[in-house]
């Protein structure tokens, strides 16, 4: 049966961005059964033994408690599980000197759903017919933002400026404030910090400048902090969360070992949180409570912050160091390749300047020799980027990848 989809149904059934590439990668792996592939595409965070044990311990505590039946056998508040909300408020108030109440926090079924709520609560068409834009101040950014708005014409992204170190073969993206426009037509602003996929960390000054521009028009700013401190603390440079009246601090527990439980967290002004909560109530009532219950235990005990700083951060930071040293040793010094400075997250972003083929063509050529990457243009809505992203397994596969680099060099030379 071929269902008659509405305009929104057709839009939401399409694969966008890196999701389309992932489908191609899955088909490639199936078709090449028996062939060895070095898969550096986007994927799951690795299961670290210490992290898995933390969640086993918290689960055992929950199972042994009288709380278990209340958690899994009853409906709950659409705002989220009370003990988790209280744990977050207590931790952030002590850690950052805030004055959060329970009304400043919303728990969602993953942070992706949070951006869907915000993009459609604050972006799109008003009741009077005016289009409210969703501004991405620095592109490339998380590919998931591209599919969250029911009105794609509302999404506006801005090309960054570049800080380039030609000698070290490194570069860094920065917001171009000469081009960035936030006006009365803006519905909300969204960006990730640390960035998925580049590993970029906007400075505190840059964040405050964006927030101030938005505040002039009463525009909320959603900061995607899925890799930020205090957990999972996947920042490799000094940074602290930035809070403000128009800032919604958005978190995820996926990179601390709970991607399967889909737990997102929003912290912000009560009126902004209430608008998102109402959206959630209509969509799904409330997120699963099991993951929330064990997360509350991990936060209250201090174990989640400790394991984030001592285990998760050091593991991925070491992976990036291996990547850097291997690229520096294997890549030709006289060709224009640049690695984005690794300031956080679990990705590497490689810019191949003057590559005479598109990133998609380069992706196809690498597939033929058994190496799978993600074309960088899937992350960029305004500027086409000839780049590739490597996922969290790239450290393990790098020696093999380096043996494939003569192909890349030959393409450049031609």
What does this structure look like?
The chain has 414 residues and is α/β, with parallel strands linked by helices. The protein folds into 2 domains: 7-49 and 307-413, Aspartate Aminotransferase, domain 1, CATH 3.90.1150.10; 75-302, Type I PLP-dependent aspartate aminotransferase-like (Major domain) (Aspartate Aminotransferase, domain 2). It contains 13 helices and 16 strands. It has helices at residues 7-13, 18-31, 49-63, 68-72, 82-96, 111-122, 204-215, 270-284, 290-301, 303-330, 359-368, 394-403, 405-413, and strands spanning 38-39, 105-108, 124-125, 131-136, 155-157, 161-165, 170-174, 186-192, 221-224, 247-252, 264-267, 337-340, 348-352, 371-372, 374-375, 387-390. The strands form 3 sheets. Strands 2, 3, 4, 5, 8, 9, 10 and 11 form an 8-stranded mixed beta sheet that branches. The protein is globular and about 60 Å long.
Brief descriptors of the model:
16 strands, 6-stranded mixed β-sheet, 8-stranded mixed β-sheet, alpha/beta, 414 residues, globular
What topology does this entry show?
Layout: H1 7-13, H2 18-31, E1 38-39, H3 49-63, H4 68-72, H5 82-96, E2 105-108, H6 111-122, E3 124-125, E4 131-136, E5 155-157, E6 161-165, E7 170-174, E8 186-192, H7 204-215, E9 221-224, E10 247-252, E11 264-267, H8 270-284, H9 290-301, H10 303-330, E12 337-340, E13 348-352, H11 359-368, E14 371-372, E15 374-375, E16 387-390, H12 394-403, H13 405-413
Parallel strand pairs: 1-14, 4-5, 4-8, 7-12, 8-9, 9-10
Antiparallel strand pairs: 2-11, 3-4, 6-7, 10-11, 12-13, 13-16, 15-16
Helix pairs in contact: 3-9, 5-9, 6-8, 10-12
């Amino acid at each position: 049966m071929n269902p008659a989809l509405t305009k929104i149904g057709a839009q939401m059934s399409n694969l966008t961005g890196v999701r389309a590439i992932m489908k191609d990668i899955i088909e490639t792996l199936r078709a090449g059964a028996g062939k060895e592939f070095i898969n550096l595409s986007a994927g799951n965070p690795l299961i670290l033994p210490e992290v898995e044990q933390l969640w086993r311990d918290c689960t055992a505590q929950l199972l042994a408690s009288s709380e278990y039946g209340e958690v899994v056998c009853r409906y709950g508040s659409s705002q989220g599980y009370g003990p988790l909300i209280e744990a977050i408020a207590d931790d952030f108030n002590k850690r950052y000197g805030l004055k959060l109440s329970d009304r400043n926090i919303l728990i969602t079924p993953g942070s992706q759903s949070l951006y869907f709520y915000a993009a459609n609560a604050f972006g799109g068409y008003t009741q009077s017919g005016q289009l409210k834009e969703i501004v991405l101040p620095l592109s490339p950014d998380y590919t998931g933002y591209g599919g969250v708005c029911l009105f794609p014409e509302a999404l506006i992204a801005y090309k960054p400026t570049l800080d380039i170190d030609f000698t070290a073969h490194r570069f860094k993206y920065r917001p171009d404030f000469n081009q960035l426009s936030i006006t009365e037509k803006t519905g909300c602003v969204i960006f990730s910090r640390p960035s998925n996929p580049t590993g970029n960390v906007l400075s505190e000054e840059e964040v405050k400048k964006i927030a101030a521009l938005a505040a002039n028009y009463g525009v909320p700013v959603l900061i995607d902090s899925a890799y930020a401190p205090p957990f999972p603390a996947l920042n490799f440079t000094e940074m602290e969360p930035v809070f403000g009246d128009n800032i919604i601090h958005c978190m995820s527990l996926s990179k601390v070992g709970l991607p399967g439980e889909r737990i997102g967290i929003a912290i912000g002004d009560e009126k902004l949180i209430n608008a998102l909560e109402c959206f959630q109530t209509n969509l799904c009532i409330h997120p699963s409570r099991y993951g929330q219950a064990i997360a509350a235990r991990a936060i209250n005990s201090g174990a989640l912050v400790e394991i984030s700083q001592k285990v998760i951060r050091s593991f991925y930071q070491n992976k990036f160091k291996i990547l850097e040293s291997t690229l520096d040793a294997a890549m030709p010094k006289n060709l224009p390749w640049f690695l984005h400075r690794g300031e956080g997250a679990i990705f590497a972003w490689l810019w191949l300047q003057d590559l005479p083929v598109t990133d998609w063509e380069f992706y196809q050529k690498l597939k033929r020799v058994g190496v799978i990457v993600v074309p960088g243009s899937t992350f960029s809505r305004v500027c086409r980027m000839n780049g590739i992203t490597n996922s969290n397994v790239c450290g393990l596969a790098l020696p093999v990848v380096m043996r494939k680099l003569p192909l890349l060099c030959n393409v450049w030379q031609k």
